[in-house]
TrEMBL record:
Matching InterPro entries: DNA/RNA_pol_sf, DNA_pol_Y-fam_lit_finger_sf, DNA_pol_Y-fam_little_finger, DNA_polymerase-Y, DUF4113, Rev_trsase/Diguanyl_cyclase, UmuC
Protein name stated in the entry: DNA-directed DNA polymerase
Cited PROSITE patterns: UMUC
EC number(s) on file: 2.7.7.7
Record's catalysed reaction(s): DNA(n) + a 2'-deoxyribonucleoside 5'-triphosphate = DNA(n+1) + diphosphate
Species assigned in the record: Commensalibacter oyaizuii
Upper taxonomic lineage: Bacteria, Pseudomonadati, Pseudomonadota, Alphaproteobacteria, Acetobacterales
Amino acid sequence: MIGLLDCNNFYASCERAFNPKLEGQPIGILSNNDGCVIARSNELKPYVPMGMPAFKIPPHIKKKITLLSSNYELYGDMSQRVFSIVQEYIYDTELYSIDEAFLHLQNKQNATEYCIALRKIIHQCTGIPVSIGLSLTKTLAKIANHVAKKNTDYQGVYFLNPDHPAFASILQQFPVTEIWGIGRRLSVKLSNMGIQTAWQLRNCDAHFLGKQFSVVMERTILELRGIPCIDLEGTHTLKKNIMTSRSFGNATNDFHDLEDIVRIHASRGAEKLRSQHSLAQAVLVFLKTNRFHKIKSQYHPSIAIPLLYPTSDTREIIQAAQNGLRRIYKKNYLYQKAGIMMLDIVGQDKNQLNIFSNTNTDEAKKRSEILMQTLDNINKKMGRNKIAFGATKSTASWNLKRNHLSQRYTTRWDELPVVKAV
């Protein structure tokens, strides 16, 4: 038995947990720099489509809705709280995203009742509503979760049983575009073949479509038939590239500002490398001007800087990244975005010595690993960037615009919620 636990309207629910006045109100969460709507409560969906730029929302609609800046500190902490509760009751848990997790319920009797009780505990402890879909495979559990959300009769939990008479009806009404792993382009190709529902895809020749598309398609078809093909930990693979980037609150041509943000991105990229026990062999640095400003000159440079040897040492990656920045920077342009990409990623066990370098000896590698591990442990315990390389101006022009930011209720001492006695 596989379960898919999904936090309902997660970002909006986090805001409502600490501001009950938002209950029942249409809420939209904005992207970085308060640009586009990236999350919506159910009440907002009839008014604003996903991804709509905030400045395009008509004034008469803006008066009826609440728009909030992305409060990632709050959302990340609430996610950790929800799934720490889940892991207390279900040991085999695979975190899939900030608001989703797959659950292994093989040893649980009466799984539906168990999950209904778990759902109540999560809501009582965090204020976050969740829905849980149950079935024999991950793909079917995803579909079951959709049913659990749509139909209130199921108390937020639904078991999609392939042997139940309703199974065929549910898959016949489920569009192929909504199936886990079927993207927009692939769904168009399937539609051209006359495959528009999950039931139609389930009844296709799995081997034939696997050859036409990929082994993932073959596995998806088998999963729709109730045959598990995707292991519980099957989605955790070594990333081939790691990117960290950000659009700026205000465009800038200040080299020192760009140097700061490139250093921060490089540090974050190195941290991600270490978290998956891997090393990068090259670093790509890129800058972008604002492509929406048609009048101004455009410049979108990038450069890949090879590293002397595969590494995840923050110091070496920062040095390479800033070297790349110096080579592509031109002062006559206003830049709106900068980013870093780690290239040619290999496993930590693939680190090779370099006969032309005295810095990649076994002793130097050991010192580097100890230093980076200490850095990561302190930042994990005390908060990100408690120890960082270099100083950053709090007034830097690239800082995010978050003009509608709510309090970071659970991660900042000075923003803790206050309960007033009546």
